Amino acid sequence: MAEEQTELEERIIIKDQLTKEIDLVNRDPKRINEDVVKVDFEDVIAEPVGTYSFDGVWKTSYTTFTVSKYWCYRLLSAILGIPLAVVWGFLFALISFCHIWAVVPCIKSYLIEIQCVSRIYSLCIHTFCDPLFEALSKICSHIRVALRKEI
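Above: the chain sequence. Below: its structure as C-alpha cells.
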C-alpha cells in the first residue's frame, strides 16, 4: 500500500515537471535580462540643447523607433523563436548528457585512481623523507644562538 502511494506521488511529480504552467505576465522571473535589453528611444537617440529638430519629427521618430522595435522583436521571435528553442534545448540536453555520462564518471574514476597513487606517495614520503628530516632535526637541535648588544 505504501509502495503504491510512493509510486503515485512519483508519477504526479514527474507529470508536474513536464506540464509546468508558465507565467505569461512575468516572463523573466529570475531577472536574467534586466540590464541587457532595456533599450529605449532616449538611450539611443538624443538631441543636445540648441540642435532640436521639429517637434513633429521628434514625436514621429519616437513612435517609429518604439513601434518598429516592438514589431521587429515579435516578428523575429515568431520566425526564429521556436527553432532557436529547439537548438538551445538540444544544446543543454547535450551538456547534461555529457556531464551525467562522461564528466562525473571520469572524475569519480580519477578520484579512485588518485587514492591509490596518494597511498604510494605517502608511503614513499614516510619511508625516505621522514628519517632524513628527523636526522636533520637532531643535528640542528644542538645549535644555540645568542644575541648580544655591544655598545
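The chain has a mean pLDDT of 86.
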